Automatic annotation (TrEMBL):
UniProt cross-references to PANTHER family, sorted A to Z: GNAT FAMILY, PUTATIVE (AFU_ORTHOLOGUE AFUA_3G00765)-RELATED-RELATED (PTHR43792), N-ACETYLTRANSFERASE DOMAIN-CONTAINING PROTEIN (PTHR43792:SF1)
Organism encoding this protein: Flagellimonas marinaquae
Domain (N-acetyltransferase): residue spans on this chain: 28-173
Species classification: Bacteria, Pseudomonadati, Bacteroidota, Flavobacteriia, Flavobacteriales
GO function terms (MF aspect): acyltransferase activity, transferring groups other than amino-acyl groups
Protein name as annotated: Ribosomal-protein-amino-adic N-acetyltransferase
InterPro entries: Acyl_CoA_acyltransferase (IPR016181), GNAT_dom (IPR000182), N-acetyltransferase (IPR051531)
Gene3D superfamilies to which the protein is assigned, alphabetical: 3.40.630.30
Amino acid sequence: MINTAFQIDYLKPDDAESLSLLMRSNREIFERFFPNTLQQNLSVLDSRNYIEKKDEEIAKKEEFTFAIRENNDQSILGLVILKNIDHNIGEGELAYCLDSDYHGKGITSSCIKQAIDFAFDKIDLKTLKIIAHKTNRGSIGVALKCGFQWKKTIQKAYRPPNEDFLDMELYELYYEG
């Protein structure tokens, strides 16, 4: 069942404190697959700068970063990022992270479905990708629950900080409207 008590929306300037707190309190889980985002949000000032940069990317339709929020609360529980957008071929990639206290509740799946609707309906993408490591069962579960299908293993696709390159699993979803 998809949890509808959560929504995605753009980051706002007054989100800086909540965003920085999310990143710092989940440092151990974010540093492997979200190291750049983590490094850009280690202080409230860093997060203010990050949010300004994300606003510029949205204005240029280069990348869309959304906050995951509970409907009745404005604190940030996670992020959904629509990135690596190629408007010429109608393709983009979804990446996401969530506060560890909220794992396993259907929140990410609900928010990814909202991001899918946005990508297909608002910016006319035709293909979405999710790339996950085979050990990240939660991320793979989100991809499958949201209708993505496994396509292939990408050899040496990602290098986490201070580790060797990892093979990653590619999942894709195609617009059917």
